[in-house]
Design goal:
Distance between the termini: 9 Å
Shape: globular
Radius of gyration: 12 Å
Number of helices: 1
Strand content: 35-45%
Number of domains: 1
CATH class: Mainly Beta
Order of helices and strands: EEEEHE
CATH architecture: Roll
Structural class: mainly beta
Number of strands: 5
Helix content: under 10%
CATH topology: SH3 type barrels
């Protein structure tokens, strides 16, 4: 698994609720200059945008009741 701080276009991550997402790009909010992750939900093809800082959050979600994967973080890299 690579360093999560090196998010790249095309990488696939698994969300702790079981679905997979594919990174489209990293963008910048024009109003706040905050970096944003743009990704596609692989189950329904919806496009989502989340602040990069939130995407990289190291909060341990392993004890959440809705964590069906048992993974530690909200997003974990599956493939380059």
């Amino acid at each position: 698994m690579s360093n999560m701080n090196e998010i790249k276009q095309g990488q696939v991550y698994r969300h702790f609720k079981g679905h997979f997402i594919k990174i489209i790009t990293i963008g910048t909010n024009t109003e706040t200059m905050e970096e944003m992750v743009v990704y596609e939900h692989q189950g329904n093809n919806k496009i989502w945008i989340r602040p990069l800082e939130m995407f990289l959050n190291k909060e341990d979600v392993s004890t959440r009741e809705d964590n069906i994967t048992g993974q530690k973080y909200r997003f974990e890299l599956i493939s380059e």
